[in-house]
Amino acid sequence: MLKRLFDSRLFLLTVFALLLFLPKAAKAQGTFSKTIYVFQGKKVNAVTTWYYLNCDTSLGLGSYSPAVEPNHGELSYADISGPVPGCPKGSPSLPAAAAYYKWTDKTTDATSDYFQLNFILNGQVAEIIDVTVERVVMNISGVDTLWWFNGEQPANYPTQAKLTTSLNNAGPYTWTSSTAAGGTGQVVFPNGATSYTTTANSVVVSATSQSKNPNDVIVNVMSPAGMSAPFNMTVRAPYMLMPEPLERCGNQNACDDPSGDWGYVSSIYYSIYDQLGTSLPSVDIAINEKWDSDLLDDYPGTNWDRGSACGTNEEQCTTYPPRLWKDQIQGQCLYKAGKCTRKQNPEPLHPKTPRGDVAVDHWEGHWSVGSTKPGKGVEVQTNTWQKYQDHARHTNVVSPP
């Protein structure tokens, strides 16, 4: 079994999980092609290969032999060791063969080079690797993580970023953005497109689509002086509500408290997670609710009503910490407390133990993140708001929707 570790950017290793089962007398398995990006005079790892049975067992150490030498640089080789990429944390180090390239030609205007390597196992060619070299003259720097909220721009979560090249006064600069194979993330330039030309060495990008994988957005820039190394970005977005059990709620995510004005107040706790399985940063984010159906009666002759989504003046849809925020659902205003001008049917009760099963009314709706306006932002959950005589719950929960 072979695994290769490639350096597809300067100073950054990228794993390609390509596993080949090789017989002991393996012949050439065909040609594998890749591109590396280098600065002049800087040695970079071109390819590293492990030959192993499993994460704990090596099958030996191969070596590289040049089939085609580079024209503008030099190759060097080393035997190294380390855990096989993709193996569990704590896996032992196994031996591997590494090949390195350094652009040494200072007399040419060429911007690309090429070489071919044979990977040798047991005295025979196990694999042929074609490597194209692109010489770069500048790096791109800036924020590498953006957020997407379906057109909304909440505070504390950047949806735009300024990117700058390390080479000044070398314009015009032609910027391009693309999406890596298998990804979905996208950023655009001020013209709303994925290509843009500037005279200055900086540009602003805006997120227009969330990533499927980390670093699946690729930004490049080209100037008359040469090209940049690729700059990878990730576009994160709210994705789902994760129930948060609490000890005071009996390790459930809902608690009920008595209320002298409403009979009860039920609190339902969640945290917000993005599409890559990470909870949102610990800075407040706008959350809103939106009703998707009329109020539907469960209790015959009930006169309970419901408020507007987010409250009468939308004051309840505001910013909340993304971890352990809660939806509070009140019972119904109590006539005997002087909060209502009519008696309620049925009269709301304080929470009973065990909780009662008298359903009063319900309605459908959904939650969105990124705006204080009902329905704006990224939808993260649909559910039914179900009111009982002594408590309330979210039922029919679907998250992500």
Feature tags:
mainly beta, Immunoglobulin-like, ten-stranded mixed sheet, six-stranded antiparallel sheet, 3 domains, 401 residues
Outline of this structure?
The chain is an all-beta fold and 401 residues long.
Please explain how this structure is put together.
With 401 residues, this protein is mostly beta strands. It has three domains: 2-136, Immunoglobulin-like, CATH 2.60.40; 139-236, Sandwich (Immunoglobulin-like), CATH 2.60.40; 240-398, no CATH class. Helices cover 0% and strands 52% of the residues. It is built from no helices and 30 strands. The chain has strands at residues 2-9, 12-20, 31-38, 44-54, 57-60, 63-68, 73-82, 94-103, 112-121, 124-138, 140-141, 145-147, 160-165, 173-179, 186-188, 195-198, 202-209, 217-223, 226-228, 231-236, 238-243, 254-259, 263-274, 285-291, 296-297, 319-320, 325-330, 359-369, 378-388, 392-398. The strands form five sheets. Strands 3, 6, 9, 10, 12, 14, 16, 18, 19 and 20 form a ten-stranded mixed β-sheet that branches. Strands 1, 2, 4, 5, 7 and 8 form a six-stranded antiparallel β-sheet that branches. It is elongated, with a radius of gyration of 30 Å. The two termini are 41 Å apart.
Parts with pLDDT < 50 across at least 5 consecutive residues: 6-29
Rg from alpha-carbon coordinates: 30 Å
What does the average pLDDT come to? 89
Tell me the total number of β-strands: 30
Structural class, please?
Answer: mainly beta
In N-to-C order, the SSE pattern is EEEEEEEEEEEEEEEEEEEEEEEEEEEEEE
Largest sheet: 10 strands, mixed
Quote the distance from N terminus to C terminus: 41 Å
The number of distinct structural domains comes to: 3
Helix content: under 10%
